[in-house]
Design the sequence.
């Protein structure tokens, strides 16, 4: 950590803490806990799954719509930390409160989960926006990659602790049931998140801002409208967002579909958790490697590499047959999932006007959120008309090709001259 400043390390450590939410609440423990709760309450499996899907769609839409609006307000002096703090407290509080919801009250679980998700994802919008305040353009790719790397490493620790408690629950070693063990995991997540957020609050401050001119709310809407009117001025930026929309959709869909593939191959829940854990560990050094290689070859070239790797992943998935194949697929994903996300963030941060970072990261959030819709639909449609799910995954190659073509037309950040571009 000695090669990074206190501000850079403090910013990156937030990812170390907050990523526990992503793996424990979003991916692993909460979905299983919720399904058990809904089943105990008498809900059919397909109904409870549908309700969870509706819940995710609702908070995704809310955040996508609010992102640019809240981000525009947060660009005023002193507002970024306030918005970050509000969403952080919201996320942490309701993550912890999940542990106290009566087991068969699946509806209250979904409500608390929705609020926690709004808090966690909302805080990340402003966290991403802080990258322009903690480092320089030259170091941005490395700092962004470090954040993702620490996130992968940091999240594995509370995840491993939680999984050990859950797997050992119900015997002489840990004399509690699985339900209580899952509730403990929710509390562990909140505590871990809080502890490693302290440096962020202490050492990271807004350096780039816009001075207030009257009431910030109506002024923010005027600025947002002006951005849309002058969209030609930000041609490079929105071209990148369009490319990002396509290739990040493919990335997200591959990650989300991997568990289903593992299940189809006959992997047990324990085996899938082990593979998920190993994937997190492998992804950490590769995220750092992407950052270092971006310094040597440029972020854009490394984004090309990441996109091409995912095209290989989709092609390999088409021929997936054995458990060994699944391990190979998971490791291929691990080599690039952190790198492509980290470099997308730093590349975008270099393109935007720094004093408007939150407004533009709000747009970044919109494109990232709505990108999670098209990929699954493409997979479902292709699988339905062909009768084979492997064709569905292979169809994602189209998204990566489109993203690659559009990205090739986006100039390097130093050439873009966003604020003066015509």
Sequence:
């Amino acid at each position: 950590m000695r090669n990074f400043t206190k501000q850079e390390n403090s910013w990156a450590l937030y990812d170390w803490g907050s990523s526990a939410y992503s793996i424990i609440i979003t991916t692993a423990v909460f979905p299983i806990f919720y399904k058990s709760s809904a089943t105990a309450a008498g809900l059919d499996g397909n109904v409870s799954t549908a309700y969870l899907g509706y819940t995710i769609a609702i908070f995704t839409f809310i955040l996508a719509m609010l992102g640019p609006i809240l981000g525009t307000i947060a660009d005023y002096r002193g507002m970024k930390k306030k918005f970050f703090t509000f969403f952080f407290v919201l996320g942490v509080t309701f993550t912890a409160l999940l542990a106290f919801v009566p087991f068969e009250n699946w509806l209250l679980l979904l409500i608390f989960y929705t609020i926690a998700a709004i808090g966690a994802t909302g805080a990340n919008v402003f966290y991403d926006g802080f990258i322009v305040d903690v480092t320089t353009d030259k170091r941005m790719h490395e700092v962004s990659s470090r954040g993702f790397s620490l996130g992968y490493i940091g999240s594995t620790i509370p995840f491993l602790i939680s999984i050990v408690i859950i797997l050992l629950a119900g015997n002489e070693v840990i004399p509690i049931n699985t339900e209580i063990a899952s509730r403990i995991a929710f509390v562990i997540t909140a505590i871990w998140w809080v502890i490693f957020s302290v440096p962020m609050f202490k050492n990271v401050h807004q350096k780039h801002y816009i001075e207030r001119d009257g009431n910030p709310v109506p002024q923010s809407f005027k600025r947002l409208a002006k951005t849309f009117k002058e969209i030609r001025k930000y041609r490079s930026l929105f071209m990148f967002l369009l490319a990002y929309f396509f290739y990040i959709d493919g990335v997200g869909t591959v990650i989300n579909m991997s568990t289903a593939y593992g299940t189809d191959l006959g992997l047990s829940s324990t085996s899938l958790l082990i593979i998920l854990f190993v994937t997190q560990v492998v992804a950490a050094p590769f995220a750092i490697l992407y950052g270092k290689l971006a310094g040597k070859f440029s972020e854009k070239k490394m984004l090309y590499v990441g996109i091409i790797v995912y095209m290989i992943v989709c092609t390999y998935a088409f021929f997936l047959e054995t458990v060994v194949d699944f391990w190979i697929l998971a490791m291929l994903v691990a080599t690039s999932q952190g790198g492509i996300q980290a470099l997308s963030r730093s590349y975008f941060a270099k393109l935007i006007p720094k004093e408007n970072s939150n407004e533009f990261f709000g747009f970044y959030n919109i494109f990232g959120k709505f990108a999670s819709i098209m990929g699954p639909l493409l997979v479902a449609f292709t699988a339905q008309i062909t009768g084979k799910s492997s064709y569905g995954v292979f169809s994602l190659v189209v998204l990566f090709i489109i993203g690659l073509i559009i990205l090739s037309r986006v100039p390097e950040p130093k050439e873009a001259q966003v604020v003066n571009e015509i």
